[in-house]
Design brief:
By secondary structure, this protein is of the alpha+beta class. The strands form 2 sheets. It has a 5-stranded antiparallel beta sheet with strand order 1-2-3-4-7, with no helix packed on it. The N and C termini lie far apart (about 115 Å). The relative contact order is 0.09. About 0% of the residues have low confidence.
């Protein structure tokens, strides 16, 4: 007896990072209800759990599609009558790899494993829109970067930034910009300040420019120095005729 064809449907493959035709290996729906007996409040919802396999890259992944009675999208039908449908929140596990990491990110592992780890967790926070944690991570990454460059970790952030400037790592303008990164991290850590997505992107870009030059481009440029031929020595000037 021939095997029955697999059920397929479109889903977002985390490896291809796009909608693909996927085989359904299993699915189950779980409904739930909640009631506050003391105040008379109640809500309900449900979750579709599905095990899928991408027909392109063959990645097997888990998808949830959930709804609840408090999250609805209203609309009007063709007769002008108000209608509504439940909003669906779809998530896949594992998640697609974050697009926020720069192309040189992996090279930071060779620079300093701890700094690489801090940056990795910071990018996870940004990818999940955890803006407070991202701002704190930016400050922590900058702190570790100064230590890798040989600056005393016991110094204050202001002293560290001044030493970066005096050591030629940054100019005054970038010193001021990195000061904003530091202030943002302090405000997030100690006062619960949350930057918006645009502010996070600008703060991150400022830190990445500094890290890229200090640890990636700068180091590569220094390796070229050994291959540059030395300047030829100047020959001594010939003696004038008739000199004794």
């Amino acid at each position: 007896m021939a095997d029955e064809p697999k059920t397929t449907r479109k889903a977002h493959c985390p490896t291809c990072d796009g909608e693909r035709t996927c085989e359904v290996h299993g699915a189950i729906y779980k409904a739930w209800d909640w009631e506050d007996k003391y105040h008379g409040h109640s809500m309900n919802g449900g979750v579709d759990h599905t095990l899928l396999e991408c027909r392109g890259c063959e990645t097997v992944f888990y998808e949830t599609s959930s709804w609840n009675s408090e999250d609805v999208d209203p609309y009007y039908d063709g007769m002008g009558e108000p209608q509504y449908e439940y909003a669906k929140e779809v998530q896949t596990y594992p998640k697609p790899e974050a697009k926020t990491k720069p192309v040189w990110f992996d090279a930071m592992q060779k620079v300093d494993a701890q700094l690489h780890n801090i940056l990795s967790q910071m990018y996870v926070a940004q990818d999940n829109h955890a803006n407070i944690l991202t701002a704190i991570g930016l400050r922590t990454a900058l702190d570790r970067a100064t230590e890798v460059l040989g600056i005393d970790p016991a110094k204050s952030f202001e002293e560290k930034l001044d030493e970066l400037r005096e050591g030629g790592w940054i100019g005054q303008t970038e010193r001021d910009i990195l000061g904003v990164v530091t202030d943002a991290g302090n405000a997030a850590a100690h006062r619960g300040w949350e930057p918006d997505i645009r502010e996070v992107a600008e703060l991150l870009s400022s830190l990445e420019v500094f890290l890229h030059r200090a640890f990636i481009v700068g180091q590569k440029a220094l390796t070229i120095k050994s291959s540059i031929p030395a300047r030829p020595k100047r020959l001594p000037a010939p003696k004038a005729n008739g000199s004794t």
